[in-house]
Amino acid sequence: MRNIGILTSGGDSPGMNAAIRAVVRTGVFLGMDVFGIRRGYQGMIEGDIFKMKTTDVSNIIQRGGTILKTARSKEFMTDEGMAKAYDQLQIHGIEGLILIGGDGTFRGANKFFEKYTIPAVGLPGTIDKDLSGTDFTIGFDTAVNTAVEAIDKIRDTAEAHDRLFVVEVMGRDAGYIALNSGIACGAEDILIPEMVTDINDVLCRIDMDERRKKTVHILVVAEGDDYGGSKKVAETIMARFPKLDVRNCVLGHIQRGGAPSYADRVLASRLGHAAVTALNNGTTQVMAGIINGEVVYTPFSNVIKGTTPVSPDMLEMIRVLSV
Ligand code: F6P
């Protein structure tokens, strides 16, 4: 294969740049021309495509965001949008694609490849860790570290004021950021979509803590939790315990930014290299992931909305360690 294209799509995640670097350098090493496609599928539709040099990816391994920029393209989900995108690939002579993104990216890819034949390999780039076929996604480790740093700071002020904080973290429909940051910060409670939230249980635990004169409470809530988000949780607690000083804090997009952790840089480099090698060897329409420390390839259709199950021991541990 001579010409390949690379794009980042959906929400950015720390480590995407490290992945782009690995793809470009592996491609050039194998004698390929690598074309950067800006703004994901939208840039593909608009022909925002340029030939990349190895120096284009110098000094980016440590940077958050994505030098290729990203977008969530509604137009790509239409027949016309896909036809325009395919035409642009033809115009630029692109014979293979490297797609870096999350659930939405692979959904789009699946639909596109039902109509058009072009070899492609994906990389899991999302802070949410909501894909199967990999133990970790690029950006997840950094996002959890960012959340941990923020929640530690919140605990300082919570302690100073004897307050209860309900902290909301990202993850879309998945609770991995909440679960891991909550455990790492010693949260008194963690609410995640993978577990049905019984609000009376939550209130009961707060009541018990109050009786024991435990003055600081940190509840970490995943944005996809079924009770309806951190604001509603905070309001319910205030209604039940009017004397408690309760605050609600949504961490938001800070979780998507910042320099990638060493783990995300290594993961991104490994998967970027593996993806181009696979494409070159004819292993296509798969996502490259890491399972038990080894690179594995999973068909696009199998990675969508298939999360790794939450370990029951972690759920059990939350209750035990927060006593
Ligand atoms: O998928 C990554 C993610 O950050 C989710 O955790 C979150 O639900 C969503 O993207 C936010 O999307 P946007 O940046 O479009 O508001």
TrEMBL record:
Keywords tagged on the record: Allosteric enzyme, ATP-binding, Cytoplasm, Glycolysis, Kinase, Magnesium, Metal-binding, Nucleotide-binding, Transferase
What cofactors are annotated for this protein? Mg(2+)
Query: Boundaries of each Phosphofructokinase domain copy?
Result: 3-279
Q: Which PROSITE patterns match?
A: PHOSPHOFRUCTOKINASE (PS00433)
Q: Which Gene3D superfamilies match?
A: 3.40.50.450, Phosphofructokinase domain
Which InterPro entries does the record match to this protein? ATP_PFK, ATP_PFK_prok-type, PFKA_ATP_prok, Phosphofructokinase_CS, Phosphofructokinase_dom, PKF_sf
Question: Where in the cell does this protein reside?
Answer: Cytoplasm
Report one GO cellular component. Answer: 6-phosphofructokinase complex
**GO annotation terms (biological process):** canonical glycolysis; fructose 1,6-bisphosphate metabolic process; fructose 6-phosphate metabolic process
Task: Give the EC number(s) listed in the UniProt record.
Answer: 2.7.1.11
Query: Which GO terms label this protein's molecular function in UniProt?
Result: 6-phosphofructokinase activity; AMP binding; ATP binding; fructose-6-phosphate binding; identical protein binding; metal ion binding; monosaccharide binding
Pathway membership: Carbohydrate degradation; glycolysis; D-glyceraldehyde 3-phosphate and glycerone phosphate from D-glucose: step 3/4
Which ranges does the record mark as transmembrane? none
Q: Which positions in this protein are listed as binding ADP?
A: R21, A22, V23, V24, R25, R155, G186, A187, E188, R212, K214, T215, V216
Q: Which residues form the active site?
A: D128 (proton acceptor)
Record's subunit section = Homotetramer.
Q: Which family does it belong to?
A: Belongs to the phosphofructokinase type A (PFKA) family. ATP-dependent PFK group I subfamily. Prokaryotic clade 'B1' sub-subfamily.
Q: What is this protein called?
A: ATP-dependent 6-phosphofructokinase
| Organism for this UniProt entry | Flavipsychrobacter stenotrophus
Taxonomic classification, please? Answer: Bacteria, Pseudomonadati, Bacteroidota, Chitinophagia, Chitinophagales
What gene is this protein a product of?
Answer: pfkA
